Amino acid sequence: MREIIRKIVKAIVDSPEDVNISEIDGGRTTIIELKVAKDDIGKVIGKQGRTISAIRTLLASAGGKEKVRYVLELIEE
Fold first, then answer.
1. Residue 15, domain CATH
2. pTM (2 decimals)?
3. Are strands 20-25 and 69-75 parallel, antiparallel or unpaired?
């Protein structure tokens, strides 16, 4: 899952080298923490949150197949 998110986010942002993704596995729920450059946060969120919502929808559908719940957290630094 980490690589899918990495490819999507790197295609969106201006500073792809600043994209960091970490996973916290909790059994049936996996939290994916996404860190991007400060200037790219708005691009990942998108207008009215549509971009991040679409990424979360992809995670939910992929998790449904694997019977795992994925939670995407956007971390600001």
1. 3.30.300.20
2. 0.86
3. unpaired
Question: Residue 67 domain-assigned?
Answer: yes
Tens digits of pLDDT across the chain (77 residues): 889 899 999 999 999 999 999 999 988 899 999 999 999 999 999 999 999 999 999 999 988 888 899 999 999 87
Q: At what angle do helices 2-12 and 50-66 cross, to 10 degrees?
A: 160
Closest CA to 12 of 70, 74, 77, 61: 74
- Domain encompassing residue 35: 2-19+29-75
